[in-house]
Every structure is written in structure tokens, then in C-alpha cells.
Amino acid sequence: MAKFFPLGQVMGFIFSLVLTGIAMLVYFTDMSFTTGMIVLLVTAFIQAGLQFIVFMHAGETEDKWSIYSNIFYGLGLVIMTVLGTLLILLWDM
Amino acid sequence: MGKVNNNVPLEYSTEENNLKIFGFWVFLGAEIMLFGTLFASYFTLSGRTGNGPTGAEIFEITPVLLETFILLASSFTIGLAIHAMRLGSKKATMSFMIITLLLGAAFLSVEIYEFMHYAHIGAGITVSAFTSILLTTLGTHGLHVTFGLLWGTFLVIQIAKRGLTSVTAGKTFIFSLYWHFLDVVWIFIFSFVYLKGMM
Q1: Do A55 and B32 touch (CB under 8 A)?
Q2: Most CB contacts within 10 A, which of A86, B29, B79, B115?
């Protein structure tokens, strides 16, 4: 049975539960908006990285740099889109 | 199908599989942008509640936590399915996939309950700009999960019939990428729609 539960993935799962627990503190404790947003940004991006590397095996083949560039390209466009939208439509700059 | 390389896991054993797996990563890059634009729209419109309710008024922590832990667990079990596939165990691969699909169905049930609850308390999709973008964002993710359930079900049937071959292994690995990706999207929905809205 144990061979079906590799240590790396079990640890990855436990770590993702811990990160979710930390994110939940934003709701269950009294935090300022800024602190809360920092906590959420940090935990969400670590969780995403964890999924990509531990569970999706993004770095295991020769294609790894193509895969990473593709993901960072998508991520870069999203950050520009979201920040640009916020700047113009919400923060009125 | 071309040459078969026996020194790597089955899903990477043919050139065609390698190309398909890489192609799926490119697709996921496009999916990142799709959900990114939905998030940009959500952040813009989440304050435009009109005469309707705000996020803080309608969000409930219990179903949200249930959905989050169910989806996290399903992401873990599909990872175990791939590990079992690499050990060559058809039975364990199928068991972990079926557990994943059951968890996916449980997630979807909670989400359907949540949507019905929103409609019931006067937060339907036509109420305000906020409810429109909220239900569009959640709904797009929910539709992806629904599609994944159908895809995964047919894949389990195919593995049962044909066993673990380079073809079924490649398909299963691609399905696992898709399923993990849906979990990544949910983490962002959980953090920046629900938790931010309830903070």
C-alpha cells in the first residue's frame, strides 16, 4: 500500500493544506486589508507553484524550459491585464 | 505512433505523446489568460452591486471551505493515480481516478447548491454587475470541472477496456494536468473572490 503514497506528494498535499489554513486566518482573525491581501497573494502563488512542480511534474522532461516560459508568458500577460485594468478602471490613475 | 522509448514513463514513450503533452501545456497557458481576464473583470465590477447584495452579505464560509478541501484532496488523488500508473498498476490507477471523479462530483454538488442558494436569496445573475461577474467566473470554473468529470469518466472506461498503453497513459497524464490546473484556478477563486470578499 505504502508504495502508492510517495512521500513527495504526501508532503506536497500536507503543505497545501497548511497554506490553505494560513489563508483562512484572513477570515478567522482580525487583519487589516493590506496585511490580508499580502497573506492571500503569498499563499496563493506558493500553492500554484506547488501544484505545477510537485503534482504536474512541470520540470521533469527536456521540454521543461519551454513549459516554464509558456507558463511565465501566460502569467506575465495576466499580471499586465489585471494590474492595467485595476490602474485605469479602479484606482483611477 | 513512431518509436517507443522504454526508458521513460509510458506517457512519454512516444514522440506523439511528448508533443501532445507539450501542446496541452500551451493550452493551459491560454487558460491562464482566460481566467486572468475573468479576474480582471471581477475586480473591476465587484463593487458595482446596485440594489443587490454585496459579496460579504452572500458568501458563506462552510460551503466554500468544503469546496476547497474537496478539490485539494481530488488534486492529490489524481497525482496518486499518475504515480500508480508509473508503477504499472492498472487497478490502483483506476481506483485513484474513480476517487478523484467522486470528489469532483462532490465539489460540483456543493457548487450547484451554492448557485441555487444565491438565486434563492436574490443574488441571481441578472441582479447586478457584481452578481453577473461573480456567477460568470464561478460558472466558467464549474463548467471546466463538469467537462473534466465527463472526460475522466470516459478515460476510466477506456483504461478498463484497453489497459495501460502509451495511448491511454498519455491521455491520463494530460487529464491529470487539466485537473491540477482546475485546482490552481480554484485556489485563486478561494483567495481573491471568497476570502477577500469576506475579509
Answers
A1: no
A2: B79
